[in-house]
Specification:
This protein has 238 residues and is α+β, with helices and mostly antiparallel strands. Helix content is 41%, strand content 19%. The protein has eight helices and seven strands, in the order H-H-H-E-E-H-H-H-E-E-H-H-E-E-E. The strands form two sheets. Strands 3-4-7-6-5 form a five-stranded antiparallel β-sheet. It has a two-stranded antiparallel sheet with strand order 1-2. Strand 3 and strand 4 form a beta hairpin. The longest helix is centred in the middle third of the chain and has 17 residues. It is elongated and about 85 Å long.
Length: 238
């Protein structure tokens, strides 16, 4: 009954609802009474255009959230943050969550190899429900994300939603303590969602290689791409 009311997009009377659902009008009125008492439906009076008292019509008390309250919450937060500053905050939030999610007493270590970084990223996105598949690229960890669980919100607010996922990826690859970042580059800093950024050092602090993480939203219809590369950097004092 609720789905029928929401699909109608306008208040409906009991006769119209009976025709749409295939139920007897008296059965429809019984269900409407229960829904009104529960707070899902509101009743009002609408002039019929002829003689007699206005007829009772019914409408949903609140819009559909489809996937429940979390979907509504995600939409509200993403729409509030949907500007350039919001995308930066979203990336930083993803990085901070990744650091904070490490179990207490576990040292934050950076992945030592590209394969290890790819395995960690694939496991992260699999746990989040992205159906990740790693492509056969020898010089990069290229992971296709084929089932975004936040697709509807991401299409409307890609900077925020994809920014959070980029922050999660960078926080995982960096492996450093919360708030740590290469000099001159704070969490979530720089560029658009698809821009790379230096990640954590590989090995000792004097190592000359770093990971760079990128996320390309909607690289092709229904598929986003996460990519991790190793880049050479100048040694300190060189």
């Amino acid at each position: 009954m609720l789905d029928t009311l929401r699909a109608a997009g306008a208040p409906q009377d009991a006769v119209a609802l009976a025709q749409a659902t295939g139920l007897h009008p008296n059965t429809v009125r019984f269900h409407l009474k229960v829904l009104i008492e529960a707070g899902y439906v509101v009743e009002s009076r609408q002039a019929s255009g002829g003689r007699g008292r206005p007829q009772a019509v019914y409408a949903c008390a609140a819009p559909a959230t489809r996937d429940g309250g979390y979907a509504l919450l995600a939409e509200l937060l993403a729409s509030t943050l949907d500007d350039a500053a919001g995308a930066e905050l979203a990336r930083a939030a993803g990085e901070r969550w990744q650091h904070a999610a490490r179990p207490a007493g576990v040292a934050p270590d950076a992945p030592g190899t590209l394969d290890e970084a790819a395995a960690r990223a694939t496991a992260l996105f699999a746990e989040l429900g992205f159906d990740p598949v790693r492509g056969p690229e020898p010089d990069a960890a290229r992971i296709e994300l084929r089932a975004c669980p936040f697709l509807d919100v991401a299409r409307r607010h890609p900077g925020v939603v994809c920014g959070v996922h980029l922050g999660l990826l960078r926080g995982l690859v960096e492996g450093g303590p919360a708030g740590a970042a290469p000099e001159g580059d704070g969490p979530g800093g720089g560029g658009t969602v698809a821009d790379g950024r230096s990640g954590g050092l590989v090995g000792a602090p004097s190592a000359a290689r770093r990971f760079v993480a990128e996320l390309v939203p909607f690289a092709r219809p229904g598929v986003c791409v996460a990519e991790i590369r190793q880049v050479e950097v100048e040694r300190e004092g060189a």
